[in-house]
Design a protein that fits this description.
By secondary structure, this protein is α+β, with helices and mostly antiparallel strands. It is built from eleven helices and eight strands. A four-stranded mixed β-sheet has the order 1-4-5-8.
Length: about 400
């Protein structure tokens, strides 16, 4: 399915055909048993129709619509970046359900492709592509949230096994995951970025306990994960032992990649719905509200322009992922606040277990500027790595 780069006209024709193909497929398949899944799932709503969305993901996989950009020899379509963008745009426009396998497909899979051994690729990529195995991300800890270099979870090599002890927190979907990629300190006495390793750990074993964390929204898609002499095979380290920081940073780059274009279309739908609400309630007549709506519209187009620029082949990505995270996290948090302002006093009223979509948006978007790397950490990265400013003083 890759584009043959013979001319701009050929590329445009191929892209148009690809867009029509995925659009028609979604229209035909988001029906019957999957018809009620439109608009379900996503951050703060991962509990919605989980089993049905898992079946949908596997239906996508069977039709060849997962892992589009992967090489054909590993089960992908070898799709161009342009075509991957088109897929995410059309998927979002169709209001298709949020994917339950996104951690595996968008984070773990590209990481193994980029840094894994051939044996690791053969072992794990088929399960990601078919949605036969689900993944979670073992990064944050109680004492090392956005400061990933401060992790204290340890792993020691004992014969042919890594033995892991420690705790991870805010682990999305750990309660349904089969595997977790874990950043652990494997060199005794090491600190900060040194001595970390990137381990692939099976979740279904006696040495792992998962405790869901109830959020402000009343849901529990985040978890605490406790490792008590949990084990994984010695060869399930991605990259060399001690090289985990480099691999972990690679994963974060994939996290803020092409799929953000689909995220922005969902943001646009939220903004459009808020504009409709403002017109119905008369809030749009308030010049301050009208100004905030206009600024949100402009901000969304800035998000798209930046995302497209960072995906160009000649773009130097130094700090680009951090800029993207700052842009969308702050924009979405502000949208949640705007939704509450448009509702007025009625937005303050709710009954237990009966939040409106706007109340849920407001509460959950408070976390946007924290998870995936807090605003403060992203600004430090930009200051030090892009602007060349002096490093922040550290103990």
């Amino acid at each position: 399915m890759g584009v043959i780069q013979t001319s701009d006209s050929d590329t445009a024709t191929s892209d148009a055909e690809f867009r029509a193909e995925i659009r028609d497929w979604l229209a035909e398949n988001l029906s019957g048993e999957f018809a009620d899944l439109r608009g379900t799932g996503g951050p703060g709503r991962e509990h919605e129709f989980f089993d049905e969305r898992l079946a949908w993901d596997r239906h996508l996989a069977a039709a060849g619509w997962t892992c589009l950009g992967w090489p054909v020899e590993y089960g992908g379509r070898g799709a161009s970046v342009r075509q991957q963008v088109i897929f995410h745009e059309e998927y979002a426009k169709a209001d298709a359900p949020a994917r339950v396998s996104h951690v595996g497909e968008e984070l773990l899979g590209p990481t193994v492709l980029a840094f894994g051994t051939e044996e690791q690729k053969k072992r794990f990529l088929p399960g990601v592509r078919s949605v036969g195995e689900l993944w979670c991300q073992g990064y944050s800890e109680p004492g090392a949230g956005s400061d990933l270099a401060a992790v204290s979870t340890t792993a020691r090599l004992d014969g042919d096994k890594w033995v892991i002890n420690g705790q991870k927190i805010w682990t999305s979907l750990a309660h349904v995951a089969d595997w977790c990629f874990v950043i652990a300190r494997t060199e005794r006495g090491s600190s900060r970025h040194k001595g970390l390793s990137y381990l692939l750990v099976p979740m279904n074993q006696p040495g792992i306990e998962v405790r869901p964390i109830e959020q402000l929204t009343g849901t529990s898609e985040f978890n605490e994960v406790f490792f008590d002499d949990a084990v994984t095979d010695a060869d399930l380290v991605v990259g060399a032992p001690g090289d985990g920081w480099r691999i972990a940073m690679g994963t974060l780059t994939f996290e803020r990649g092409i799929s953000t274009l689909g995220q922005q279309i969902r943001f646009a739908r939220e903004l459009s719905d808020i504009e409709d609400l403002a017109r119905r309630t008369g809030a749009a007549d308030d010049p301050l509200i009208a100004d905030r709506l206009d600024r949100a519209w402009v901000g969304l187009r800035v998000l798209r322009a930046h995302a497209l620029r960072t995906m160009s082949e000649d773009h130097d990505d130094a700090g680009g992922a951090s800029v993207s995270k700052l842009l969308w996290a702050n924009w979405h948090r502000d949208l949640g606040e705007l939704a509450m302002a448009v509702q007025g006093a009625t937005g303050l009223l709710t009954a237990p277990d009966d939040m409106t979509a706007w109340q849920r948006l407001y509460l959950f978007s408070r976390a946007d500027t924290i998870y995936g790397g807090s605003n403060e950490v992203q600004r430090n990265i930009i200051a030090e790595r892009v602007l060349g400013l002096p490093r922040e003083a550290r103990p």
